[in-house]
Amino acid sequence: MFAVVAGCSGGGGGADGGGDDGVWDAGPDGDPGLDGFADTDGDSGQDAGDVVADAGDSDDADVDIQLLTAVDSDACLQRANIGLSRHIEPGTYFLIADSYSTSGGTEYPGPYTLYAHFLADGGNCAMRSDPIQRIGASEPLEMPATGQVVKEAHLVTDQEFSGGTWPQSFTDGIDNHYQLSESVSGYSMNRTEPWCPCCEPSNEYGQGSSARPPVEAEAFYINMRWASAPPRGQRYIVFNGKNGRAVVAAAGYENGPGDLSRIGGACEEIHDHLGTGHLSVFTFGVAVDQNLSYGPIDCEE
Question: How many other CB atoms are found less than 10 A from the CB of residue 92?
Fold first, then answer.
């Protein structure tokens, strides 16, 4: 089913920080598929869960994505500039792709691809919806959160540099770290990132914001600008809304980035599996199942 409808008329800023300040969605709407998110297990019920969506556009276009409960501009739940994620209850919902337009009437229409996924609460990749308070932010970040993610360098693990010593440069012992990480995690790739930088303001090369992580956790670690640090090793689902790939990541060993326009950072192994790069857009959420193994996970199983 396809339709041209009015977009969101304010309210419901996106988790990617798009918000509504100075943003107008008055451009020509696309012809998005209006698909209800229901369960597919063959019974007559429906599942609650997380919708993750992205409107990939061309370099010259600026297409926002909107989630509504009806084909009505007053039924807007959320709008986002570069990606959207939200926990929803059973029901029918609509995704709208709408080109950005300035208050002066300049429009940025163009071709786009609408990506949408539904991760049911009972599935492998179920995520909690509790908001997270971040250092320097006046409002909590709604979870799961979708936005730009930086590529992070490596942390020294609890099996390296014994006796309280640390690397003396960005690359001191890094090749040994690569080998250790691959042997323990089982994840093979061409690792190239160095140690995390030192002296910010007084840390060492490869030092995070808490204890040294286990090797299996460092291989798939993420950070956010948490105001209160999560438990070390807490499992997060990291999900790419464009291709459906996901990773179980380890939180609680590093804090950042300071730029709150980014939702967080992820190590190069995560970016490699997701097919992403520095400042790519994907989704973070605390995993419901805290017994998951770190590393790639199939959300569809």
Answer: 14
Mean pLDDT of the region 222-237: 98
Which secondary structure element, helix H or strand E, spans residue 181, and what is its range? helix 174-185
Chain-centroid distance, C-alpha 130 = 15
Fold assignment, 1-122: Jelly Rolls (2.60.120)
Q: Take residue 229 and report the two structure tokens written for it.
A: 């640090």
pLDDT in tens, 89-134: 998 899 988 887 778 888 888 888 889 999 999 999 999 999 999 9
Beta bridge partner(s), residue 248: 237, 295
Residues 6+ apart with CB under 8 A from 38: 46, 47, 90
Residue 230 has pLDDT above 70, yes or no: yes
Distance, CA of 242 to chain centre: 12
Kindly report, residue by residue over 81-97, the tens digit of the pLDDT.
889 999 999 988 999 88
> What is the C-alpha separation between 106 and 91, in angstroms, rounded?
36
The amino acid sitting at 62 is D
- Range list for CATH 2.40.40.10 in the chain: 145-297
Q: Are 268 and 225 in contact (CB under 8 A)?
A: no
Q: Which superfamily does CATH assign the domain made up of 145-297 to?
A: RlpA-like domain (2.40.40.10)
